[in-house]
Amino acid sequence: MSNIGIFYGSSSGVTKAVAEKIAQRLGEERCDLFSMEEDFVDFDEMLDYDYLLLGCSTWGSGEVQNDWRDPLLDLDNDKPDFSGKTIALFGAGDYKAHGEQFVSALGILHDKFKARGATLVGSISTEGYTYKYSFAERDGKFVGLGFDDVNEADKTEERLERWLAALEESFPVAEEA
């Protein structure tokens, strides 16, 4: 079995496309890719992996993408233990239409999984981003990779590379020899 599970929710396909790029960069043979809408069964499935990448776009007034809503309610009710799991987050936002809550869904995921013992990695600087507020911002950094393919698609690739480089210390980014 692969040791990296990538679980994403995607309404318009943007977060899915980035999830697929991440799997390619990390090595598709090392990653299992799951749509939260089509493939997700329960959190025991996630607990089978040592490393998790969780993708979720932000909708409305800082809400998680629809495919994550019911699973997060289950997470609150079942309270699975994610101790010993390393998690990195990524997700899409739209700074023009929702700059007052840019990529805030990542902050929600961060807090939910941290409260269950997970180690969260992959924070990146907010420098170079345009937005008014984000629940995903902590101490001048986003808790994961935020990107805006609606207004700044030309920056997504560079941001992805910078984020993957930031993961190197605590996440198996490169294939082990």
UniProtKB/TrEMBL annotation:
Annotated keywords: Electron transport, Flavoprotein, FMN, Transport
InterPro entries named in the record: Flavodoxin, Flavodoxin/NO_synth, Flavodoxin_CS, Flavodoxin_lc, Flavoprotein-like_sf
Matches recorded under PROSITE patterns: FLAVODOXIN, FLAVODOXIN_LIKE
Necessary cofactors: FMN
Location of the Flavodoxin-like domain: 4-168
Keyword Transport: yes
Keyword Nuclease in annotation: no
Signal peptide (residue range): none
MF terms in GO: electron transfer activity; FMN binding
PANTHER family the record matches: FLAVODOXIN 1, FLAVODOXIN 2
Function: Low-potential electron donor to a number of redox enzymes.
Matching NCBIfam families: flav_long (TIGR01752), PRK09267.1-5 (NF006739)
UniProt similarity note: Belongs to the flavodoxin family.
Record-given protein name: Flavodoxin
Organism field: Pseudothauera nasutitermitis
